[in-house]
Amino acid sequence: MDKNQQKNILIITLLVVALLMVAFFIWWQFLRGDEPEIDLNTNAAANTNTASVLVNVTNSQANVNVEIDETEEEELSMRRLTNLFTERFGSYNTETEFQNTIDLKTYMTDDLKTWADNYVNDQRTNQGDNPPYYSVVTKVLTTNVLTESDQAATVELMTQRVESGDNFEESNSFNQTMDLELVYENEVWLVNKVTWGDKI
User: Fold this and answer.
1) C-alpha closest to that of 177 among 153, 193, 161
2) Strands (E), the chain
3) DSSP code at position 176
4) Which of 63, 97, 193, 194 could form a disulfide with 181 if both were Cys (CB 3.0 to 4.6 A apart)?
5) What are φ and ψ of residue 164, in 5° steps?
6) Which CATH architecture has domain 42-199?
7) Are 193 and 180 in contact (CB under 8 A)?
C-alpha cells in the first residue's frame, strides 16, 4: 500500500468520525428538548422553606452544643484544679519549707489562705532549724465529684503518696484520700477547705 492510499484511508476515517459526532450532537439536542419545564417560582419557594428549616435546626443544635461544651469545660476546669492542687499540696520536702503551700494560695479562698499561713508558720516552728530530711510525692489516681452546684462543689480524690527521708530505710508507699471543698467566685473555682483522709 502506497502513501496515497494510506492518506485516503485516513481522510475517510476522519470524515466518518466527524459525521458520527455531528449525528450524536443532533440526537442529544432532541433528547434534551423532551425534558419537562420547571416552575422556577415553586422551586424557589421550596428552596427558601428548606433553607429556613435547615437554619433553624442548625441554630438549635448549635445552642445545645454550646451548653454541653460549657458544662463539660466547667467540669474539666474543676478537675484540673483539684488534681493540680492536691498533687502540689501533697508533695513537699523539708528543704522547700512548705513553699508548695504558699504557691497554691492563688487557688485558695480568703479563709483557706488564712489557714495556710497559720499552717506553714506552725510547721516551720515545729520542725526547728535543722530537721531530718523528709520528702513526700503525691500523685492523683482518681477524681470523684461528689456534689456540685453553680456556687459550690465537693470532690474526693484518691492519691498515691511515696515518702522517704533520713528516718526511712527505704521509701514508703501508701494511698490516701483528699477531700476538697470548692466555691465559685469571680467566675473561677477556688479551694475553700482541705481534708486528708486516713492512710490506706
Assistant:
1) 161
2) 92-93, 134-148, 152-165, 172-185, 188-199
3) E
4) 193
5) -155, 170
6) Roll (3.10)
7) yes
Q: Which residues contact 6 (CB under 8 A, 6 or more apart)?
A: none
Q: How far is CA 123 from CA 59, 97, 131, 136, 143, in A?
A: 57, 9, 11, 15, 28
* Contact between 175 and 162 (Cβ < 8 Å): no
Q: Which amino acid is at 180?
A: L
84: its cell numbers: 493540680
Note the Cα 125 to chain centre separation in Å.
Answer: 43
Domain boundaries, the chain: 1-30, 42-199
Q: Which residue has the cell 497554691?
A: 104
Residue 45 banded pLDDT, cuts 50, 70, 90: very low
Map residue 11 onto helix, strand or coil. helix
